[in-house]
Amino acid sequence: MFDQKKKLLALVVAACLGVSAAQADELTGTLKKIKEQGTVTLGYRDASLPFSYLNDAQQPIGYSIELCQKIVDQIKVKVGEPNLKTEYVSVVAATRTPLLINGTIDLECGVTTNTVERQKQIGFLLTSYVASAKYAVKKTAGISSVADLKGKAVVVITGGSGEWITKNLDREKSLGLKILNAKDGGEAFLMLETGRAVAYINDDVQLMATIAQSRSPDAYTLLPEPMSAEPYAIGIRKNDPQFKTFADDVLRNLYSSGAIDSQYPKWFQQPIPPKNAVINLPMSDALKEAIAHPNDTGV
Q1: What is the number of structural domains in the chain?
Q2: What is the CATH number of the domain that holds 181?
Q3: Band of the pLDDT at 15, cuts 50, 70, 90?
Q4: Cβ count near 232 (within 10 Å)
Q5: What pTM, to 2 d.p., does this model score?
Q6: Long-range pairs for 251-256: beta carbons < 8 A, 24 or more residues apart
Q7: Are 76 and 214 in the same domain?
Q8: Final residue of a domain: which of 198, 229, 260?
Q9: Of 229, 250, 268, which residue constitutes the final position of a domain?
Q10: Over the stretch 236-259, which tens digit does the pLDDT of each residue have?
Q11: What is the β-pairing status of strands 39-44 and 85-90?
Q12: Range list of β-strands (E), the chain
């Protein structure tokens, strides 16, 4: 009788452990969606060098794209789908958040700054880059500081950090700026290049990359004043702890293993397609700190 009770108890315990294990492995949120649809969808930018842009074959490439692809490689293992399909959807600053929220994309692999305001709508993975917003101008414009922009036309990307930075600057310094809007970096630089605007604000590394690829790289310079610190992070849907923990662990492993040390130079210190321009931007102390001590702190 006693042996039978022990056997029954053992069966009950085993059953409970089996349920617990099944619950622990149960996919939720984004991982469940990806598993059920057999597809993971990445949001990319058309012209945000060297993070997320199209090559000559019209395929998305860049530092942020490569990080997302590393995450996708591990998603395939996690959901047990080695042939998982990857799709790409073009986004701009104004569409990246709604397309993430409504499920059109699963990862926003662009140049999005992790801000406290944006955290109200979407989630962010660990910081993957730290930039500083600056204004680009033509050397012949006679503009050497932000104060010299008074009364001038400045182009910003709609929905980007530079938009609210410029509006705040205009209000606080009473500069009387004529603020022009562009849908993306390509359109914004064209407005600077053709003289519609005398200054274009974006993060320093993106400006340097765009200038390096332009027809006259020596014709432009960046104003010395840094307007902000910009921690870039891959965007995900809010309130999806399973996916965030999973994807953060992928990035944390890239950082701790040293793999990021070979990936970074590929995009920032070596020739990059399509014109083999070199940005020549060593890893900053701020990024080294973010890699040594991973965090998802917004600004």
Answers
A1: 2
A2: 3.40.190.10
A3: very low
A4: 23
A5: 0.80
A6: 251/67, 251/70, 251/71, 251/125, 251/126, 251/128, 251/294, 252/126, 252/294, 254/67, 254/70, 255/126, 255/291, 255/292, 255/294
A7: no
A8: 229
A9: 229
A10: 999 999 999 999 999 999 999 999
A11: parallel
A12: 39-44, 47-48, 52-54, 60-61, 85-90, 107-108, 122-124, 129-138, 153-157, 178-182, 199-203, 220-222, 228-232, 235-237
Residue 297 domain flag: no
Same-domain check for residues 244 and 225: no
DSSP character string of 184-210: SHHHHHHHHHTTS-SEEEEEHHHHHHH
Would you state the structure tokens that stand for residue 59, as one six-digit string? 């395929």
Is residue 21 one of the residues assigned to a domain? no
- Name the token pair of 57: 């074959």
Statement to judge: residues 116 and 241 lie in one domain: yes
Cα separations in angstroms, 65 against 51, 96, 160, 234, 297: 7, 15, 19, 10, 21
In whole angstroms, give the CA distance from residue 241 to residue 27: 11
- Residue 167 resides in a domain: yes
pLDDT at residue 171 tops 80: yes
Range(s) of the domain holding residue 259: 26-128+233-292
- For the chain, give the number of residues: 299
Pairing of strands 47-48, 129-138: unpaired
Question: In this model, does residue 74 exceed pLDDT 70?
Answer: yes
